[in-house]
Amino acid sequence: MNDAPGMLSDPATWLDQHGDSLYRFALLRVRNPTAAEDLVQETLLAAWRAKDNFAGQSAERTWLIAILKNKLIDHFRRSSRETPLPDVADTDDAIDALFTEHNDHWVRPPSAWASPDGALEQAEFWQVFQDCLAGLPARQAQAFTLTEVDGLSTEELCKALAAQPSNVWVMLHRARLRLRECLEQRWFGAQGENR
Amino acid sequence: MLSCKDVSVLLSRACDQDLSWRTRLAIRLHLLYCRGCARFERQLQFLRAAAGRLAQMDILPDGAKLSASARDRIRAALRRN
């Protein structure tokens, strides 16, 4: 493994050394195996062309991931242009169902989660987290991943998704409510019974 | 008075943007007597922490790997380069 800062290894070995990592990184964000494969290819080609510019300040993998991140942003922009984001619907039945109709209180208030920090250390938790993320509507998952995993600001997210701030905030809110609900049902709620 | 739904919107917004002190105060007042929303706020922080961890993990999703055909295709593309 050539993961230390400094030198690039032979580009011919990049696919074997980093291909799967790049693929997983892309797949988590685009959720489409074909698109993720294409992104890996674009990334490696771009890296090949740019190899003389490699400054040696980061590890090879970090450098490749940085290129992939740019390719991902391009990908999101492209797909937003091709299928423009519809205005976020004013109502979302699944979300509305979380609150009472007459006074907008929680129908089932969030419960206390036992040892959330401990969950982060368990492989089973990550499987559940991933399933919950995969269960979100695609746009909401994109908005959530770009914001919370990749740390994009609202401004950057709006550019990437070609959307208005009010739209992305609604998407993020819905994504967070859904994720919370899913984790409570699939992990934190089940703790007393079988964990 | 803010409803739980309003507060959930604002708590989520606060993850992405600074809110005015007036809004923050209104949220704090609500949280004083609403345990559900107070938990929601902690759970939002948890989601952020979990997602942040995900950024550093290489094992996801599912230890997925490039398929052999994709690998061949990419190798061929690199060779043409």
Your description of this structure?
- The complex is a heterodimer of chains A (195) and B (81).
- Chain A has 195 residues and is an all-alpha fold.
- Helix content of chain A is 64%, strand content 0%.
- Chain A contains ten helices and no strands.
- The longest helix of chain A is centred in the last third of the chain and has 24 residues.
- The model of chain A has no long low-confidence stretch (mean pLDDT 86).
- Chain B is mainly alpha-helical.
- Chain B has one domain.
- Chain B is elongated and about 65 Å long.
- At the A-B interface, helix 1, helix 2, helix 6, helix 7 and helix 9 of A face helix 1, helix 3 and helix 4 of B.
Keywords:
heterodimer, A: 195 residues, mainly alpha, Rna Polymerase Sigma Factor, Chain: A, Arc Repressor Mutant, subunit A, 2 domains, 10 helices, B: 81 residues, 75% helix, elongated
- Helix percent band of chain B: over 70%
The succession of helices and strands of chain A, N to C, reads: HHHHHHHHHH
Our Rg estimate of chain B from Cα atoms comes to: 22 Å
Number of strands of chain A: 0
End-to-end CA span of chain B = 63 Å
Order of helices and strands of chain B: HHHH
- Tally of DSSP β-strands of chain B: 0
CATH fold field value of the largest domain in chain A: Arc Repressor Mutant, subunit A
The biggest chain-chain interface is: A-B, 53 and 48 residues
Helix vs. strand class of chain B? mainly alpha
What is the count of DSSP helices of chain A, taking H or I runs of 4+ residues? Answer: 10
Q: What would you call the quaternary organization?
A: heterodimer
Mind telling me which CATH architecture of the largest domain in chain A this is? Orthogonal Bundle
CATH class of the largest domain in chain A: Mainly Alpha
Spans of chain A with pLDDT under 50 lasting ≥5 residues?
Answer: none
**Low-confidence stretches of chain B at least 5 residues in length (pLDDT < 50)?**
none
| Biggest sheet descriptor of chain B | none
